[in-house]
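Re: weekly structure request thread

Next one in the queue (277 aa):
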Amino acid sequence: MSQSIAVVVVSYQSASTLDECLARLRAAQDVTEIRVVDNASFDGSLEIAQRHALADARVRFIANPDNPGFATACNQGAAECHAAWQAFVNPDLMVEPDTLARLRDLGLPLGDCLLGVEQVDEQGLADAAVRRRDPDFAAMLRHPGAGARLSIDADRSAPLQVVPALSGALLLMPRSLFQRLGGWDEGYRLHAEDLDLCRRAREAGATVAIANALQVLHVRGVSSRARPFFVEWHKHRGLWRYFRKFEAPRRSLPVRVGVWGVIWAHAALQVPRLLLR
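Done, posted below.
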């Protein structure tokens, strides 16, 4: 059976990094399909995708007339793919030629799995949010700041570190698992959809893990810089959706009300920081 890899890239105002991202994906080992889904960019992102599609038959693009959100766009792109392995790669993330193939090879013995890699910024600093735990809403009520932190320390002794959740900037899984999960939950607009996907994968019996020895450059926040309030709104809205979906049914009414209050109080506290920025 072919172990080829399909990649979906969702772009929005990503012109500053999309060209290099696609060039690297076209040079990546065993990548047979690249689908770019553009969410109504007006900065030249679509023109970059068109140029790559003209140069390489593996590249196809979908031009959305509006922005339906990251999860919806991921599902749109994946519906156009057929390879055995499905990857999702942010347009501000730069893979090495063997990154995805090596990650797939690590996943082959695992069967159903959802995998990620180490991500570093332009200064070489690792992103602490790549390895994540599930949101702890009880801790959020006791200590709102601490409860909202999801990062997990790297275990460098483990080439493949099992974790509850991963950053959605780069994810790889067998297509059969993706289809069994029903894809991304399109009820999320932006943020927390990766936590949701990882949790559903675990509940379906899949291994969620990060390959600590594989590293990619992530030029963070390219798409979100122009709309910081929009991003913060949907970040907290996504967290509330996650709570309602997985935790609220087994929580008392006072706890549900308390979690709602903490989430939106935290959102309100971000306003002065964003205004100063």
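Residues 228-276 form one domain. DSSP finds ten helices and eleven strands in the chain.
Next request, please.
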